Amino acid sequence: MRLKKMIPNMFTLGNLYCGFLSIGFAASGQFKNAAVLIIIGMMLDSMDGRLARMLNADSELGKELDSLADIVTFGVAPSFLVYYTSFYHYGLLGFIVAGLFPLFGGYRLARFNTSPKKASLHYFVGVPITAAGGIMAILTLFGSMIPNIVITVIFTAMCFLMVSRIRIPSLKEVPLPKYGTIVTIFIGAMLYVIYKGTYEQFPYLIYIATPLYIAYLAYKFVKR
Prior knowledge:
The chain has helices at residues 2-27, 31-54, 60-87, 92-98, 100-114, 129-141, 148-162, 181-195, 206-223, and strands at residues 123-125, 167-169.
């Protein structure tokens, strides 16, 4: 029974570790690897909550751990990635602006955690930090084709959209784990093209996460 309760937490910890590795890759100049690790974190994050419900292993520990992992992988890691790829030109100012992302994301998570349970199954209030962090990671993959001003505008928009009162469709009734996973599937189909010829630098964790994620989605569709 204890092992069953630990399974969802292992996926959450995997998500957290992806965030840590992403920061390390970004600091060493391997920006595409850092972005892919955030996307892997999205895969793992999209599975832990559903696994907890499937295994009847929901716990307060798991919920708190999930928020802590999200603030690292989808708050801190994307802010470092954006700083090293787009904001470093502005020196200290760029570093300060990049730091706003985890601040807004942390506030959004805290507001979500303290909101009435099951307030709505049809929408999120504000953009989820998972989606916001994933969008910034995706933009980094195509950084050479996107002007810095565009990334800056989107980065700023994501910060404010996370704490806004705009209702975002949750798509929870669709047989996919979370809102941000639609973006994950789209990008997953493009990873081969992006990384063609660079497999020696590919984060090996994706060879574990991707088959698990595909098997999980297949199971959900078959079950429906």
